[in-house]
Amino acid sequence: MRLVMRLAILRDRLFVCRMAIVAASACVFLIGCQRPPSGPPTYGVTGTVTLDGKPLASGDVMFYPETADMPAAWGTLKDGTFTLRAVAGRHRVEINALGGEPVTVSPIDPPIYKSIVPARYNTASTLTAEVSPTAPNQVEFSLESGKPGKR
Known about the structure:
- There is one protein chain.
- With 151 residues, the chain is α+β, with helices and mostly antiparallel strands.
- The protein has two domains: 1-35; 43-143, Immunoglobulin-like, CATH 2.60.40.
- The chain contains one helix and ten strands.
- It has one helix spanning 2-33, and strands at 43-51, 54-55, 58-65, 73-78, 81-86, 89-96, 98-104, 112-115, 127-131, 138-143.
- The strands form three sheets. Strands 1, 2, 5 and 10 form a four-stranded mixed sheet that branches. A four-stranded antiparallel sheet has the order 4-3-6-9, with no helix packed on it.
- A hairpin with a 2-residue loop joins strand 1 and strand 2 (54-55).
- The longest helix is centred in the N-terminal third of the chain and has 32 residues, at 2-33.
- The N and C termini lie far apart (91 Å).
- The model has no long low-confidence stretch (mean pLDDT 82).
Protein backbone atom coordinates (compact mmCIF):
# COMPACT_ATOMS: atom_id res chain seq x y z
CA MET A 1 0.00 0.00 0.00
CA ARG A 2 2.80 2.41 0.87
CA LEU A 3 4.51 1.61 -2.41
CA VAL A 4 1.36 2.42 -4.37
CA MET A 5 1.00 5.74 -2.54
CA ARG A 6 4.66 6.61 -3.15
CA LEU A 7 4.28 5.82 -6.86
CA ALA A 8 1.15 7.99 -7.02
CA ILE A 9 2.97 10.90 -5.34
CA LEU A 10 5.96 10.47 -7.66
CA ARG A 11 3.64 10.41 -10.71
CA ASP A 12 1.92 13.62 -9.52
CA ARG A 13 5.27 15.34 -8.98
CA LEU A 14 6.44 14.36 -12.47
CA PHE A 15 3.20 15.73 -13.91
CA VAL A 16 3.68 19.05 -12.07
CA CYS A 17 7.32 19.25 -13.28
CA ARG A 18 6.27 18.59 -16.87
CA MET A 19 3.57 21.24 -16.71
CA ALA A 20 6.06 23.74 -15.26
CA ILE A 21 8.47 23.05 -18.14
CA VAL A 22 5.67 23.48 -20.70
CA ALA A 23 4.57 26.77 -19.08
CA ALA A 24 8.14 28.09 -18.95
CA SER A 25 8.72 27.14 -22.60
CA ALA A 26 5.51 28.91 -23.61
CA CYS A 27 6.59 32.07 -21.78
CA VAL A 28 10.01 32.07 -23.46
CA PHE A 29 8.37 31.52 -26.85
CA LEU A 30 5.86 34.35 -26.37
CA ILE A 31 8.46 36.79 -25.09
CA GLY A 32 10.82 35.89 -27.94
CA CYS A 33 8.12 36.47 -30.57
CA GLN A 34 7.45 40.01 -29.38
CA ARG A 35 10.91 41.40 -30.10
CA PRO A 36 11.14 43.96 -32.87
CA PRO A 37 13.13 42.84 -35.92
CA SER A 38 16.84 43.56 -35.62
CA GLY A 39 19.05 45.01 -38.29
CA PRO A 40 18.66 47.85 -40.75
CA PRO A 41 15.27 48.57 -42.39
CA THR A 42 14.58 46.81 -45.69
CA TYR A 43 12.48 47.88 -48.67
CA GLY A 44 10.51 45.88 -51.23
CA VAL A 45 12.03 45.32 -54.66
CA THR A 46 10.25 43.76 -57.63
CA GLY A 47 11.71 43.06 -61.00
CA THR A 48 11.84 41.15 -64.24
CA VAL A 49 14.64 39.16 -65.85
CA THR A 50 14.83 38.13 -69.49
CA LEU A 51 17.50 36.09 -71.26
CA ASP A 52 17.73 36.70 -75.01
CA GLY A 53 14.36 38.46 -74.88
CA LYS A 54 12.52 35.62 -73.12
CA PRO A 55 11.53 35.57 -69.41
CA LEU A 56 13.95 33.46 -67.38
CA ALA A 57 11.84 30.51 -66.15
CA SER A 58 13.48 30.02 -62.76
CA GLY A 59 16.54 30.95 -60.75
CA ASP A 60 17.81 33.21 -57.97
CA VAL A 61 18.49 36.93 -57.73
CA MET A 62 20.98 38.24 -55.14
CA PHE A 63 21.47 41.87 -54.12
CA TYR A 64 24.84 42.61 -52.49
CA PRO A 65 25.05 46.11 -50.95
CA GLU A 66 28.13 48.18 -51.75
CA THR A 67 28.36 48.88 -48.00
CA ALA A 68 30.16 45.76 -46.77
CA ASP A 69 28.56 45.60 -43.31
CA MET A 70 24.99 45.44 -44.66
CA PRO A 71 23.15 42.15 -45.27
CA ALA A 72 22.66 40.73 -48.76
CA ALA A 73 19.15 40.04 -50.08
CA TRP A 74 17.90 37.04 -52.02
CA GLY A 75 14.80 36.39 -54.10
CA THR A 76 13.46 33.51 -56.16
CA LEU A 77 13.00 34.06 -59.87
CA LYS A 78 9.88 32.47 -61.37
CA ASP A 79 8.50 33.06 -64.86
CA GLY A 80 10.77 36.06 -65.31
CA THR A 81 9.75 37.93 -62.13
CA PHE A 82 11.12 38.21 -58.61
CA THR A 83 10.40 39.95 -55.31
CA LEU A 84 12.78 40.57 -52.42
CA ARG A 85 13.52 42.95 -49.54
CA ALA A 86 16.85 44.81 -49.44
CA VAL A 87 18.52 47.64 -47.52
CA ALA A 88 18.57 51.06 -49.16
CA GLY A 89 21.53 51.96 -51.37
CA ARG A 90 23.46 50.72 -54.38
CA HIS A 91 23.77 46.94 -54.88
CA ARG A 92 25.75 44.59 -57.10
CA VAL A 93 23.25 42.09 -58.55
CA GLU A 94 23.87 38.42 -59.36
CA ILE A 95 21.41 36.30 -61.33
CA ASN A 96 21.75 32.51 -61.30
CA ALA A 97 19.78 29.89 -63.22
CA LEU A 98 20.55 26.26 -63.97
CA GLY A 99 19.23 24.27 -66.89
CA GLY A 100 19.85 22.47 -70.14
CA GLU A 101 21.19 18.96 -70.32
CA PRO A 102 22.88 17.51 -67.22
CA VAL A 103 26.67 17.92 -67.22
CA THR A 104 27.19 14.58 -65.48
CA VAL A 105 24.76 11.86 -64.56
CA SER A 106 25.56 9.13 -62.07
CA PRO A 107 23.19 6.36 -61.01
CA ILE A 108 23.71 7.25 -57.33
CA ASP A 109 24.09 11.04 -57.55
CA PRO A 110 21.53 13.58 -58.69
CA PRO A 111 22.15 15.16 -62.11
CA ILE A 112 24.33 18.27 -62.20
CA TYR A 113 23.23 21.13 -64.42
CA LYS A 114 25.31 24.04 -65.63
CA SER A 115 24.41 27.70 -65.43
CA ILE A 116 22.45 29.05 -68.39
CA VAL A 117 23.31 32.62 -67.33
CA PRO A 118 26.73 33.93 -68.42
CA ALA A 119 29.25 34.69 -65.65
CA ARG A 120 29.08 38.43 -66.40
CA TYR A 121 25.61 38.35 -64.79
CA ASN A 122 26.47 36.17 -61.75
CA THR A 123 29.97 35.30 -60.46
CA ALA A 124 31.57 38.22 -62.35
CA SER A 125 28.46 40.40 -62.40
CA THR A 126 28.52 43.97 -63.60
CA LEU A 127 24.78 44.44 -62.91
CA THR A 128 23.75 47.06 -60.36
CA ALA A 129 20.52 48.32 -58.82
CA GLU A 130 19.61 51.20 -56.54
CA VAL A 131 17.16 50.54 -53.68
CA SER A 132 15.32 53.62 -52.45
CA PRO A 133 13.52 54.00 -49.11
CA THR A 134 10.89 56.25 -50.74
CA ALA A 135 10.51 55.50 -54.48
CA PRO A 136 9.03 52.31 -55.94
CA ASN A 137 11.85 49.83 -56.46
CA GLN A 138 11.08 48.26 -59.84
CA VAL A 139 14.07 46.91 -61.80
CA GLU A 140 14.44 45.20 -65.15
CA PHE A 141 17.39 43.08 -66.29
CA SER A 142 17.68 42.16 -70.00
CA LEU A 143 20.42 39.54 -70.24
CA GLU A 144 22.05 38.23 -73.41
CA SER A 145 23.62 34.79 -73.62
CA GLY A 146 26.08 35.84 -76.34
CA LYS A 147 25.38 32.62 -78.29
CA PRO A 148 25.22 32.90 -82.11
CA GLY A 149 21.67 33.33 -83.38
CA LYS A 150 20.45 34.84 -80.13
CA ARG A 151 19.52 38.48 -79.61
